[in-house]
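Issue: ligand-bound run for NA7 - logging full I/O for the record.

Environment: standard queue, default settings, no custom constraints.

Inputs:
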Amino acid sequence: MNEQLDAVVVGAGFGGLYMLRRMKQMGLSVRAYEAGGGVGGTWYWNRYPGCRCDVESLDYSYSFDPELEQEWAWTDRYPSQPDVERYLNHVADRFGLRPDIQFDTRVTAARFDSGDGSWVVETDRGDSVRATFCVLAVGCLSARNVPAFPGIGSFEGPVVHTGAWPAEGVDFTGERVGVIGTGSSGVQAIPLIAEQARRLFVFQRTPHFVVPANNHPLSAAAVDERKAVYPSHREMLREGFFGFTLALNPRSALDATEEERRAVYEAAWQTGGPTLLGSFGDLLTDRAANDTAANFVRGKIASIVHDPKVAALLTPTDYPIGTKRLVQGTGYYETYNRDNVTLVDVRSDPIREITRNGLATGSSRYELDAIVCATGYDAVTGAVLALDVRGRDGVSLRDHWADGPRAYLGVAVAGFPNLFVITGPGSPSVVSNVVLSVEQHVDWIAGCIDFLRSEDLRSIEATGDAESAWMDHVGEVAAKTLFPATDSWYVGANIPGKPRVFMAYLGGVGPYRRRCDEVAARAYEGFVTRPAAEPAARASA
Ligand code: NA7
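Outputs:
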């Protein structure tokens, strides 16, 4: 007989930890399974040099406990990986969460048993437990993408992915290193690897727009100032668009003169971070407006990088700025002025194979001692589909999502009762401050479970109609922006064969929250609930 729990939580990162906390407070019997050896999820695995969050620390933190918020001392504008990992360890200890987390255990399957309405959850360590609720808190950027380069297994040196960096670090001193990929992870790691390695080859397929992070230590006064207004500040973020601090100027870029625009963009460049994208209201919806910001950054690249050929290669030309995640860097473009750094364009001359002692493109060979894959993630859906999830009648989630991911409100899936996906497809997730979005989902799920218990209901399931209507809405909102046309991981373009769907909700975290709250207030409109004792469904739609 399997152990019977009220709930299983998969993952102990930001989402899993807070879900565990809420469920324990509610008196549920709950266990979290975590593949890593410690808490943190993404922040446990991403130990590469330079790894730092691109949302400010005073925003990228839990708001659910005022004392935690007041007592924790962030030191930098943007938290480094060790900062975030330390914070999450503190959270786990402060709220006594560790005893309910089974570490070094990967959930392999979750199957709904229609017989008793339980989820049967299995792990790679042979566990098999039953639970009334199953919450997938597996992260949006946690399923690593390691391209199937021919010969990759034959390379004699280390091949490390930024998202699985050895805890003991990697010493590149005196070595010839190849970094494949120039997204956020590559851009953060490259300047530091360049300082250590003898030679660095950067294999770039698509140049990204990189703005200065302008990270700096936080002054005690700045921290105190924020702490004094934390409740109202958090409320403002919850009602806002991205869920992090960003002044959004509603004016059209095309209504400003060339001089005005230049002054605004220059100020944003100096401030750093995502400021540039908030400079005008139509940068992400109007190509001509977007071009003004893109051209500004192109000019910066040309002014920083000494070799005009290298500058040209680093300059994005064929997609609007911001529609691939805007990358924040520190000394990134300057790195290409170093004598020991070579940029290799693998768009025009693709990687053909990895050999015993290096990498070969169609036309050249590069001898290397170590290879770094900064090649990103199978975003949003990859970590969910890494589990064999089967709902009512044994239907697999992989089949249900064969033409693209579908989830009502981005949190529940038709045919999968009592299963919740934290920051799932169709929620603001990766286009928002994900910690804020995680908290909103966890609170909503906790409210939903409370509702079921108070009404003596056993299960809740999104209807197919509600799911379809929501995903249509998600698509319509995205279609009004410049995002869907760009080949980005937001649309799955980085993973061969992945259905092309803009996976996040672009309606803003404030409107999204209101919609979720309305659904709950209308007794879970768009869901079907079933009482504990009766098999017949009660429609709320
Ligand atoms: P990203 O942003 O997906 O970047 C991955 C990079 O790797 C990107 O430059 C890719 O080029 C490149 N890539 C992927 N596959 C290949 C192959 N086969 N050949 C050459 N180059 C390849 O991942 P990150 O880890 O940097 O960042 C992920 C998010 O984490 C980031 O946006 C932040 O939100 C935090 P491409 O652009 O696809 O041509």
